[in-house]
Amino acid sequence: MNVDKYKKLMVDLLEEKISADEFQAQYLKKFKESDDRMGETLFEILNGVFESTDCYWHECLPGHETSFEISEQQLKVEVNKALIKLNKRLNTR
């Protein structure tokens, strides 16, 4: 399983190399089209990012998030948490 394609998108978002809207479109497409085999832990991390990305809405303001809509700020928080988990997971192999 090549997680680098996911990590690159996540880092690009956090470093503001791509917008949240671009991240959303690219991540959702990659994840949906993926036929990569991955373990349960890796799937949980990447699927968590998928769920957060699916909830991102460009008009949602920080502090006005719901269980169905999150702001760009919250998306970045969730992506950062996932990236930390992903790096820990990959370093323990």
Q: Alpha-carbon distance between the termini?
A: 13 Å
Radius of gyration: 13 Å
Sheet with most strands: none
Beta strand %: under 5%
CATH class: Mainly Alpha
Number of strands: 0
Name the helicity range. 55-70%
Total of domains? 1
Question: Would you mind describing this structure in some detail?
Answer:
By secondary structure, the chain is mainly α. The protein has helices at 4-14, 20-33, 40-55, 72-91. Helix 1 runs antiparallel to helix 2, helix 1 packs across helix 4 and helix 2 (20-33) packs across helix 3 (40-55). The two termini are 13 Å apart.
Structural topology:
Blueprint: H1 4-14, H2 20-33, H3 40-55, H4 72-91
Attribute tags:
single chain; 93 residues; Four Helix Bundle (Hemerythrin (Met), subunit A); 4 helices; 0% strand; globular
Care to give the gist of this entry?
By secondary structure, this protein is mainly α. The chain is built from four helices and no strands.
